[in-house]
Specification:
This protein is an alpha+beta fold. Among the domains are: 84 residues, Maltose phosphorylase, domain 3, CATH 2.60.420; 107 residues, no CATH class. Helix content is 36%, strand content 19%. Strands 1, 2, 4, 5, 6, 7, 8, 9 and 10 form a 9-stranded mixed sheet that branches. It has a 6-stranded mixed beta barrel with strand order 12-13-17-16-14-19. A hairpin with a 2-residue loop joins strand 4 and strand 5. Helix 3 packs parallel to helix 15, helix 10 runs parallel beside helix 12 and helix 12 runs antiparallel to helix 13. The longest helix has 24 residues. The protein is globular and about 75 Å long. The two termini are 46 Å apart. About 1% of the residues have low confidence.
């Protein structure tokens, strides 16, 4: 399967249109201002900056990638000026031999490529992604030139002279950046380099730390990895690049490997919100079914990486289950990473917040082992904000895919597509509702149109095949109207998830729901029963659902008693998980006792 570019797609409104405008007006400018204040944009001038960090460059590169996508769809003079200034700073300060890393050039020029864990190749990968975006969408090849020179330097050091202190990076990213350069330019050396860094992983004894338990996925070769282990973002960036290689090289063995890894994640190691990486120590995947709620790590970057992995798996296999997971991660964990006003962020996304626990821990702010109860404008490690801004800008490319004469609608957004296979106009009330209207003109050619049937839809359709609604023929402006009819659903966990045993949660369409203390007298001692009388309404912001679910509250005076606590009828107010923590510090809960 092949997806379309942002040049082929125009978002015309709806929920995604609102998020894109918020990204332009608030999120991307806010990230810039915070990065400017903290010194990141001064650092790329290779000047000494207080607090300068080894991966600050990657924050700037992700911001530049976001800006490139944005500027391709709207002319924003302020963002264009910021973008141009940063690009010129990078171009003018690149070393003559091609190397560019502001930290090492400024702080430790004698230690280049001596520490596997210091993110040099990680930063390079994000540079390559930004370069591909600016060249592809803006026709701006300045960063592409920087990347070509830097890639040549990296190739000389790692593959020709082999004089570096390590072979593969401690944090994967360069691999998928190289694949982006290769698919943009068809330059063979980028393909050669991507394959080198992928196939060398797990082969070098000095890079296998027996105590790390696969922390950086160096415990086995890419063909031998069957379980998602270690740092979740590192792992998923590796799997993305593996999926790219499997598709580009038509490598069936590697295809089987990434399918196995995906299945391991979604069947044993993923939160209901599409969050992954459940443990603070190492920001990592944990044992099967270990998915704590209050101490869930579930980093925003990890859910974004899962989305990108799912996109690659759609391209590799054409299977709809990957689009279902992409949808789950976006409308829940990823979007929870940014406030509704667009300028504050979460790094960690727990599924339960108890303010009493946070206060008793001594702090309601960092360390990251203690979840935040409110989002903040910037972190010392601020990888998540620009990662989120760039994936929001890229989201239109997840809407449509093609394979020969087949056009697939995978995500539901208000958008138009102009392409040689067909012109499409899609209108939807998603995610508030399930109505989707698709108008198609196939330019006089017979095509197959497939519309994904979401995994949450309980409706039956006569033309359903392999999870898609399938329409064949020549389309000359025909409109196909579908209603997936999202309803309030009760979700049961796998009984092996000890943290959720005996509990239920609720969803409506793609949105997982949660309850906040600000709407409920208490979230302790609450149990839910029959939901047939539940009420669903929407706030003035048409996309914010409110659900009222019949519940029972139990309270008892003694700490322990031989008498069951008395039960009182109550109503549980629920909202979409991604909207929580926007009204001040308050308790929050996703899973509830059933009874």
């Amino acid at each position: 399967m092949q997806n379309f570019t942002l040049n082929d797609i125009t978002v015309t409104g709806g929920f995604l249109g609102g998020r894109l405008e918020l990204n332009r007006a608030s999120t991307i400018p806010s990230i810039y201002e915070q990065f400017k204040q903290t010194g990141r944009f001064d650092a790329i001038k290779c000047e000494p900056v207080e607090g300068m960090h080894i991966f600050w460059d990657s924050d700037v590169y992700k911001w530049l990638e976001s800006a490139a996508y944005l500027l391709a769809r709207v002319d924003d003079a302020k963002i264009r000026a910021w973008y141009d200034s940063a690009v010129e700073d990078i171009v003018s300060h690149q070393r003559a031999d091609g190397y560019f890393n502001s930290y090492y050039m400024t702080k430790e020029p004698d230690r280049i490529f001596t520490d596997r864990y210091c993110h040099e190749l990680y930063c390079a990968g994000h540079l390559f992604e930004a370069a591909a975006a600016s060249a592809k969408y803006l026709g701006d090849e300045r960063l592409l030139g920087v990347s070509a020179r830097y890639a040549d330097y990296i190739r000389e050091r790692f593959m020709v002279r082999r004089d570096t202190a390590f072979v593969t990076p401690g944090h994967e990213e360069i691999e998928l950046g190289l694949w982006k350069l290769y698919e943009l330019t068809a330059e063979p050396r980028y393909k050669e380099m991507a394959e080198f860094f992928l196939t060398e992983r797990g082969k070098h004894a000095e890079e296998r730390d027996p105590k790390a338990a696969g922390y950086n996925q160096s415990h086995a070769t890419i063909y031998e990895q069957t379980t998602a282990v270690g740092h979740s973002v590192r792992a998923l960036y590796l799997y993305i690049a593996m999926a790219d290689m499997a598709r580009i090289d038509r490598d069936e063995r590697l295809k089987s490997a990434v399918e196995t890894l995906y299945n391991d994640i979604v069947s044993k190691r993923m939160y209901i919100t599409g969050g992954v990486g459940s443990v603070y120590e190492g920001e990592r995947f944990a044992a099967d079914y270990f998915l704590p709620n209050g101490r869930a790590y579930s980093e925003t970057c990890a859910s974004i990486a899962l989305m990108m992995f799912c996109d690659r798996m759609i391209r590799l296999t054409g299977e709809k289950k990957y689009a279902d997971t992409l949808e789950r991660a976006f409308y829940n964990c990823a979007l929870a990473g940014v406030s509704l006003d667009g300028d504050k962020f979460f790094y960690v996304n727990p599924l339960e917040v108890r303010m009493s626990d946070l206060r008793d821990s001594g702090s309601t702010s960092f360390p990251m082992s203690v979840p935040l109860a409110e989002r903040v404008k910037v972190f010392s490690c601020s990888c998540c904000p620009p990662n989120l801004s760039r994936v929001i800008e890229q989201f239109p490319t997840y809407a449509f895919y093609r394979d020969g004469g087949t056009l697939a609608v995978e995500q539901f957004v208000d958008a138009s597509l102009r392409s040689d296979i067909a012109d499409v106009e899609m209108k939807t009330d998603f995610p508030r509702g399930g109505r989707v209207s698709v108008r198609v003109d196939s330019h006089g050619k017979a095509i197959t149109l497939k519309v994904r049937l979401p995994d949450w839809c309980g409706e039956k359709f006569a033309n359903e095949r392999d999870g898609y609604l399938v329409y064949d023929g020549v389309f000359a402006g025909e409109t196909i109207d579908i209603d997936f009819k999202p309803t309030l659903r009760r979700i049961y966990p796998n009984p092996n998830i000890e943290a959720d045993f005996g509990k239920v949660c609720f969803s409506c369409g793609p949105m997982v729901l949660c309850a906040e203390g600000v709407d409920n007298r208490t979230l302790a001692g609450v149990s839910v029963g029959d939901i047939s009388a539940a009420e669903l309404t929407f706030t003035d912001d048409a996309y914010i659902l409110r659900a009222r679910v019949p519940a029972t509250v139990r309270a008892a005076e003694p700490l322990y008693s031989t008498t069951p606590p008395a039960a009182e009828p109550a109503t549980l107010e629920l909202i979409p998980y991604f909207t929580h923590a926007n009204r001040g510090e308050t308790d929050m809960k996703v899973w509830f006792v059933e009874g």
